[in-house]
Design brief:
Layout: E1 2-6, H1 19-37, H2 39-53, H3 68-72, H4 80-92, E2 99-103, H5 112-134, H6 137-151, E3 153-166, H7 168-190, H8 196-216, E4 218-230, E5 235-237, E6 252-259, H9 261-268, E7 281-283, E8 289-291, E9 306-315, E10 320-325, E11 333-336, E12 348-352, H10 365-389, E13 394-396, H11 403-411, H12 427-430, E14 431-433, H13 447-457, H14 461-464, H15 473-512, H16 515-522, H17 533-538, E15 540-544, H18 554-580, H19 589-601, H20 616-632
Antiparallel strand pairs: 1-3, 2-15, 3-4, 3-12, 5-6, 6-9, 7-8, 7-9, 9-10, 10-11, 13-14
Helix pairs in contact: 5-15, 7-8, 10-13, 18-19
Length: 678
């Protein structure tokens, strides 16, 4: 048995007061209003999905119900839309983004606040990248992108999840202890001569054993970020917004989760009788839920096609999350108040790729391409019919030949001699080739349609893998630049969305992860001070390195590196010379030059790795200056200059090559012991 705990949720479920019925009715009215407003969008989504699956005939084809089965086999279905979307996806998202966490620029780089934020940023960056990778960000983000391409929008929900399981050994021990307790009580009840004080002591002792085992029976199997994709038709939102792009300004959001009766009973600790009020559905052959009547047999939950819709309503005004099952008039989970940190409160993040000014919803790539696919299928089908009409066949004089001779003539193969009775007439006068309409392939040329598809989708020949001849390097670069320009807007929208996802994930990790968990995740050198979480959050910025999700171009990266190498080599000596003069790195113009150069060439490159560490004697000089500043302002950044009874000054160490050790041991020689800043 496995139980899931979502952050903020309580494990107990109280008796529902009458007042909850009114709130649930209000929430349901809001949900119903949202559905009515966007009902047409949901129908368009279903239509687009059928197009992407190749299950739809084209709109220009008129087929009566009586002709459907007959004509369906004659339609040439070429699912160009699916192929185009599959080629488009890796151009937009080929790998996980590189998440960078940096101190806020408004913090004084010479103070303790900046040093604390810098160390904390490096730890958080490692933790964030690791946790999102474990949560399978790449797989989930691609699901969201596919949803955008087909269903107009993609929706991601982020929660912190704890997965508990029951230890089977402890469960058996608990069962035995409970039976022993029951037997003990029964024995004492039947024996009148038992001293009541001794009996109470025995019962209390056995109760303590049971309580101890109850605390041990449930163990945590896994905890961490949980990324889930919400289908657009299972999502509702405040209808007062002018566009879904403004979803962060919504007053409420709601999502529907389909669960089997067994899952509902297990997740929310309900008995079967409680399910009688809930609405139940069964998915038909097309996957569409259809409501069942109250007298439908639910069985014991084994039928996975039967589902109960469970609604989760996020009310921003009251900062409360409400949960109920459709058809019920009471909460099945205690309303809870998620902690707020930063600008986001809702755990939902909406992505759209093709926004139109003045429209509430974006359009999907299927919407853009379906008419072209219709035309392509029309041309291909007409060409097929024309080829059938142009197929060679013969005509014969029925008065001169019988059906046996016709069968002999028709069944003849290569090398055979067909003997027929032509009644003395020439064979050519009996069988003659029929006249067929000429077939001109140019009439059915689809190159213009395919060109339009490539233009609208932003995919050229090179991107579609259909280059028929080799091109020069210049031509290849021109094609690549043109392709990047066409897909650049979508990549930019994706990166902004990923930034919001990473920022919200960082907020959750700050709330849920302890210093011990962080150390287990990224190493013992992690810096996770026990400061106010909001204070720490205000000191850092979460960014997505531009272009980090795109498919890497090895040739281009090599050329860029060849250009950067001379710049690096020329400035290393100059940087060291300025350091020997005691000039801090923050004011070293050559370091700033290298950083700016890397920034302009490729933001994904970590410039810190290429700046050599300070010489030992310069380290001592810098340390003395820092000690003097700390002594003059011991409350800088809220941190003391030194702990009572501790070291006179922080211990500096040389930089290690390990990525995790770089958290506390960068080229600027940071503090080894985090307690020095706590």
């Amino acid at each position: 048995m496995s139980d899931l705990e979502i952050t903020g949720a309580s494990s107990t479920y109280p008796e529902i007061s009458t007042s909850s019925k009114g709130l649930i009715k209000e929430f349901q009215n809001n949900i119903a209003l949202s559905y009515r407003k966007w009902k047409r969008r949901y129908r368009e989504i279903e239509h687009s999905r059928r197009y992407a699956l190749g299950k739809t005939t084209w709109r220009s084809q008129t087929i009566t119900p009586g002709q459907a089965n007959q004509e369906a086999g004659k339609i040439i279905k070429s699912n160009i839309i699916h192929a185009t979307l599959q080629n488009m996806l890796p151009l937009i998202y080929a790998k996980n983004p590189e998440i960078a966490v940096k101190p806020n620029q408004h913090i004084d780089p010479s103070g303790y606040d900046y040093r604390t934020a810098d160390l904390f940023s490096e730890t958080l960056e490692l933790v964030l990248n690791s946790c999102l990778k474990k949560a399978e960000l790449k797989r989930v983000a691609k699901q969201v992108l596919r949803s955008c391409m087909v269903s107009k929008i993609g929706i991601l929900k982020i929660t912190y999840q704890r997965d508990y399981i029951k230890d089977p050994l402890v469960s058996r021990q608990l069962h035995d202890a409970q039976e022993s307790l029951a037997a003990l009580i029964e024995t004492i009840r039947q024996e009148d001569s038992v001293d009541q004080q001794d009996a109470d002591a025995l019962i209390q002792k056995q109760n303590m054993i049971v309580e101890s085992l109850e605390q041990q029976v449930t163990v945590m199997r896994r905890e961490g970020l949980n990324l889930g994709v919400v289908r657009p038709e299972d999502f509702r939102m405040d209808t007062s917004l002018d566009t879904l792009q403004d979803y962060k300004q919504a007053q409420w959001m709601a999502n529907r989760t389909w669960m089997t009766p067994k899952e509902v009973m297990s997740r929310f600790q309900l008995d079967k009788k409680a399910l009688e009020k809930f609405s139940t559905y069964r998915r038909n052959q097309n996957g569409i839920p259809q409501r069942l009547t109250k007298d439908s047999n639910l069985g014991e939950g084994e039928d996975v096609s039967i589902a109960i819709p469970v609604w989760e309503y996020w009310d921003k005004i009251t900062q409360t999350v409400y949960t109920w099952a459709e058809g019920g008039d009471s909460y099945i989970k205690v309303p809870f108040h998620p902690q707020k940190m930063g600008d986001s409160w809702f755990p939902f993040f909406i992505l759209g790729l093709n926004w139109i000014d003045g429209e509430e919803w974006p359009i999907s790539d299927v919407d853009l391409l379906e008419n072209l696919q219709d035309e392509y299928m029309t041309i291909r089908t007409q060409a097929s019919k024309h080829r059938d009409l142009a197929a060679p066949f013969y005509v014969a004089d029925s008065s001169r030949i019988n059906y046996e001779d016709i069968e002999t003539f028709s069944n003849a193969t290569i090398g055979d001699i067909a003997l027929i009775n032509a009644s003395g007439a020439g064979v050519n006068t009996v069988f003659q080739p029929a006249s067929t309409p000429p077939f001109n392939p140019m009439i059915y040329d689809t190159s213009s349609v395919r060109s339009d598809i490539e233009w609208i989708s932003g995919l050229g020949d090179a991107a579609r893998g259909s280059v028929a001849r080799s091109k020069t390097a210049t031509e290849a670069n021109i094609l690549q630049e043109g392709l990047s320009n066409r897909t650049g807007e979508k990549v930019d929208l994706l990166e902004d969305w990923l930034k919001d996802v990473a920022t919200f994930s960082a907020e959750i990790l700050l709330q849920e992860m302890s210093a011990e968990m962080v150390a287990q995740e990224v190493g013992q050198n992690a810096f996770w001070p026990q400061l106010d979480k909001q204070t720490l959050y205000d000191r850092i910025n979460v960014e997505i390195k531009a272009g980090s999700t795109e498919m890497p171009d090895k040739n281009q990266e090599q050329m860029r590196w060849v250009e950067l190498m001379p710049i690096i080599m020329q400035n290393i000596d100059a940087i060291q010379a300025m350091r020997m003069q005691g000039i801090p790195d923050e004011f070293n113009p050559f370091i700033n030059l290298v950083k700016e150069t890397f920034k302009r060439f490729d933001e994904r490159i970590d410039v810190v790795k290429f700046i050599p560490p300070l010489p030992q004697d310069v380290q001592e000089y810098v340390m003395q200056n820092e000690q003097m500043q700390a002594a003059m302002n011991p409350q800088a950044g809220g941190q003391p200059a030194a702990k009572p009874g501790g070291r006179a000054r922080p211990e500096f160490v040389r930089q290690e090559n390990s990525p995790t050790n770089r958290v506390n041991q960068r080229s600027r020689n940071e503090y080894r012991d985090p307690q020095d800043l706590s």
